[in-house]
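[Structure tokenization] protein backbone as discrete codes

[Encoding] learned vocabulary of local backbone shapes

[Begin record] amino acids and matching fold tokens:

___
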Amino acid sequence: MSLFLELLLAAALGALHSLTFVHTRWWWGQLLIVALLASRVAALAPGRAAGVGLVFGTAWIAAGTWWLFISLHTYGGLPAWLAVLAIAALSATLSLYLAAAMAAFARWRSGCGWRDALLFGAVWLLAELARGVILTGFPWLASGYAQLDAPLAALAPWLGVYGIGFVLAVLASWPVLNRRSALRSRSISVIALILALGAAASLGPGRFTTANGTLTVTLLQGNVAQDEKFAAEQMPKALAWTREQLLAARGVLVVGPETVIPLLPSQLDPGYWEELAAHFQRGPQAALLGLPLGDEDVGYTNSAAGVSAATAALPGGFYRYDKHHLVPFGEFIPTGFHWFTQLMNIPLGDFNRGVVGAPSFAFHGQRIGANICYEDLFGEELAARFADAANAPTMFANISNIGWFGDSSAIAQHLQISRMRALEFQRPMLRATNTGATAVIDHRGHVTHALAPHTQGVLDGEVQGRTGLTPFAWWASRLGVWPLWMLGGLLAAAAALKPVRPAA
């Protein structure tokens, strides 16, 4: 096959791969796509394999995160051609890891089907870890998310999303890497794939946690258009709606989205914050609300404030969670990129970082682990809160604003990410968002209550807290993702040190 056709096929496969994250019922399609990629790369020299990996990865990420165009162009005012170029450049840069992985696989493959499948899974795992961890990390569309509604999801509380990606890469590649082996060997690999999927489906994710009481909750979805959210003429209307819903909420816990109050408490109309704080400090309810905090002297944070009768004695009268994992170009500007942000018309923040493993918001016998926006993308950081099992969260609350990305697949993708975290830790996840997806997710990763995206409203539901540790929560709280780095590294090193490719 000519180089042009090879790269064209890789681009098509990468773009198709992104669709399996939009419709997770197509999880089997991901297995086929990864199998085809492994089959093609196994027949190439390392340099050409790197090119295939680069193109596949670029198409996968660009097609899956096309909605960045909305924030850059529609809301940011960046020229369309430059927004497209920026997304392509970001996708290509992040795909360099996959390019290196495919080159390593092509160089070190042995010709032995099961060994090559382990090698392919190892380099796939290392590429995903690198993309998710190095620099600020961008693990959006990590391959395991497409298996959310598949048998392999049973591995989430054991291995986490990266571990699922490793297993799917091994299982998908083994049959095709055995294609030149004896019929018996090929049959074994296919049977192993079927048995693995069947066993995972039958056994399920296991039960590592127990119930710890329930809360009635009210989640707010203001549906404020992104170009109006910080506009002075529109803000009073949004703040009035928020106040009305907070004071009238039926749930004992009320959660508002990221920057549901878009101003510092000191910038609000006199009495606004004081009235809300007094309402929750003197009554049986509690509120967890997104807002900016800080001042010019100490700096600013993207934060969540928890207010209840128990917080009246705390500094400021509320529990405070400060976002740790900040968004590059949104909440901080990477060194050397001020020229790029000056081309956009987006109100960028320059926030201070909170701490990893922040304490939970304690209320009504529950410990609510707050996280903001795409912080729930980093399971290893949420895992740090489980180092002390006695004080680990009994539930999570994600407050987000995906309004930057319009009516796009970003909403569904972020919901999938939250569902995966619920599975990994066997903890429910409350999602209060500006435009969606506002939902209650139980400890099994099932959405039990949800609002339609891009509607204004409140969601009333009930959530059951959980105690206990999953295997993933135990090892990731102590070691982060280092065990997965070691697994991938050892398998790759074993292949590199002992190639046994048969003579042609």
In short: The chain has two domains: 3-206+481-497, 210-469. Residues 3-206+481-497 form one domain.
